[in-house]
Amino acid sequence: MNTPSPEPRKPHRLPPVAIALGALFFLGLVGLMLYGVTRSGQPDRDSLPSALIGKPAPAFSLPVLHDPHILVTDQQLRGAPYLLNVWGSWCPACRDEHPVLTRFAETKRVRVIGYNWKDERADALRWLEQLGNPYMVVLADEEGRTALDWGIAAAPETFLVDGSGIVRWKYSGAITEQVLQEQLIPALEKVEAEATGERTPALGAAR
Questions:
Q1: Which of 88, 125, 173, 182 could in theory staple to 119 by disulfide, Cβ–Cβ 3.0 to 4.6 A?
Q2: 41-54: burial string, b at 16+ Cβ within 10 Å, e else
Q3: What is d(CA 64, CA 61) in angstroms, rounded to the nearest whole number?
Q4: Paired residues of 71 in beta bridges
Q5: What are the tens digits of pLDDT across the range 130-155?
Q6: Cα(86)–Cα(83) distance, rounded to whole angstroms?
Q7: 38-73, pLDDT tens digit by residue?
């Protein structure tokens, strides 16, 4: 008597709900990236307010782009002002501002820290090799998690942080020569003047 052969198992399929949720998640990530790219080229982005002005810079511990085994923290950058410039190799406006930022960095007026955001490491390194590296160090936030604490919505964005770790100025958009002269340098001069005042003893003070 022949034994009936078992019926072949039907392939396991994901339920429609799981497929729909996965598709929505993927579309959301794509939409967020496209939003960042399109906003990066809009000149009115500098009008966006920042809730961080006058408050401590968010804590972070990020790998160095050129050597991911090295981590840099916000605490290590304290003691002197620094400019945190958010950029990505995928960002057209970042390429536009790069020559202006490079000339300013060459003055060594303030430490310029690069913040490579949501970028592939190889693409970012190639971009710097082609255009030049004006940064003292470049931090890498490939997944963009730390950027959420800074309120970063697009690139480029630039923050001026004083020696005490307080955010003193922010600009959303490509830094131009006009922005440099009319906004960044005056903000930096104010930070420098306050720092000098803190180090200078008051007249009549006991020695």
A1: 88
A2: eeeebeeeebebee
A3: 10
A4: 63
A5: 999 999 999 999 999 999 999 999 99
A6: 10
A7: 444 444 444 445 789 999 999 999 999 999 999 999
Query: Length of the chain, please?
Result: 207
CB 55 within 8 A of CB 166: yes
| 75, pLDDT greater than 60 | yes
Which residues contact residue 167 at a Cβ distance below 8 angstroms, ignoring those fewer than 6 apart?
50, 52, 53, 54, 55, 56, 57, 159, 160, 161
Residue 4: count other Cβ atoms within 10 Å of its Cβ.
6
Report the mean per-residue pLDDT for the chain. Answer: 83
Q: What pairs with residue 62 in β-bridges? A: 72
User: What pLDDT sits at residue 148?
Assistant: 95
What span, in angstroms and rounded, lies between the C-alpha atoms of 116 and 72? 13
